[in-house]
Amino acid sequence: MKIVIISGSIVGTKTKTAMLKTEEIFLQKYPEHDVQLLDLADYQIEYSDGRNYIDYEGDTKYVTETIMNADALIIGTPVFQASIPATLKNIFDLLPIHAFRDKVASVVVTAGTAKHYLMVEQQLKPILSYMKAQIVPTYVFIEEQDFLRKEISNDDIIFRLNRLAEDTVTTFDAFEAIRIKKDEAYGF
Length: 188
What we know:
By secondary structure, the chain is of the alpha/beta class.
C-alpha cells in the first residue's frame, strides 16, 4: 500500500511536527508499506486554473501525481480563521472530482483552541466525501497546549496517532477486500 502523508500548510511548525510524528509511527508500525511525506512548504505549487492535473509541470505535477497514486492519504491541516488553509484547498482544486475514489483518507488537525474541533466535520470531511474518499471516521485533533518545543508533549495524542495509523490500514484492508469481491463478481 502507498500511503501519502500531507502537511497541508506552508507556514508554522505544528502541523509539520504532527505529520512528522505520524510518518514516524507509520514507518515503525507498517514498514512493509510505502510511506511518503509531502510537506507543501517544500514545493512551489501553482494555483488551480482549471487545467487537468496532468497538464501542470514541476512541483505541481509531482505533488498531484503523488497524491493520485496513493492508496491512503493522511491529511494534516492547521485551522486558520475556522477553516483549512488556502494551500490545502488549492491541492483539492487541482485534482479531479473523483480523485479520491478507492482511497482511504484520515485527518490530523492542529489548532490553537478546542473551539475549532468541528471544522473537520463541517468543512474537510464534506470535501473528502465529494471527492469520493473512504474517510476514517475518527481524526486526531491537536491543540496548542499539546506541543512543547516543536514536539508533541501529550502522550494521549501519541496514542491517538498510533490508533489513527491502525484505523487507516484496517479501513484500507476492508475496502480493498470489498473491491476485490465486487471485481470477482463480474467474472472477468
